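My current task is to audit a protein record that another person submitted. Thanks in advance; the entry in question is below:
***
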Amino acid sequence: MKKRHVMFFMLAFFIIIPLLAACGNDSSEEGLAENGTTEETETDNNESNSEEGSDLEGTITMAGSTSVQPLSEELAAVFMELHPETRLEVSGGGSGAGVTAAQESAADFGAVSREIKDEETGITAEVIAIDGIAIIAHPDNSLTDIALEDVTKIFAGEITNWSEVGGDDQDIVVVSREDGSGTRGAFTDIVLGDEELVESALIHNSTGGVLEAVANDPNAIGYASTGAVSDSVVALAVDGFEPTLENIQSGDYAVSRPFNYAMNEDAELSELAQAFLDFVLSDEGQKVVEENGFIPVN
């Protein structure tokens, strides 16, 4: 009887112990699996947080052309939707100020609404859009089309009455941008050439100033970016071609110029500034250019 008890306990021992060991291993494996899952989850969270933390933030600075400014603000608005922690600070001063800002690294970008001159050294420039320069008049002006040659003569002071170009018998009031303005520089190159602007011209330091002056005087004539023209004035056809996107792109409308972002050639753009420039030249950025009445470059 005693031997039977001993054998029973020995048999029980050899059966139960392996079972307990197996259970222990399963628990350990489950624990390892749970730990592994936790570690993977923590890794994923860390990677997610890292990606969120790598998003762009900061301020892009720009100075220069008031013609380029509205387009830059529209581009920045879309860019800031993609990168909410960024913003754009823009100051005017004209294209000359934009060149200076780029040369002196006073801003990330200098906005220049004309061709870069040979003597403007120390910078590189990226064309972001093509703009037409509209010849504008008061909505009550009976004239709808004008020859480019006559525009030259009006702004040079050789033609002084609207009746000389098919309009009413009224003295012409010439309105122009200030010296140093990119719009005036491009207008001078394309329209005036070697001629001097008439001394009686009313000078304004912004696109808005020119638009307001022409809108308030039935006998005025001026010029402004096609993208800035509002219902307060009318854009005249030149040599039979209106300043439409199609006519500017084809070259039929002759009065057009580039919009440039100028940068210091010796200074590397910040990650944020480079990202903004890449966006501007991307399909999405060029769509914004076109939607605002300018000619895309890509």
Notes: Residues 57 and 84 are 8 Å apart (CA to CA). The mean pLDDT is 86. The chain has two domains: 57-131+258-291, 132-256.
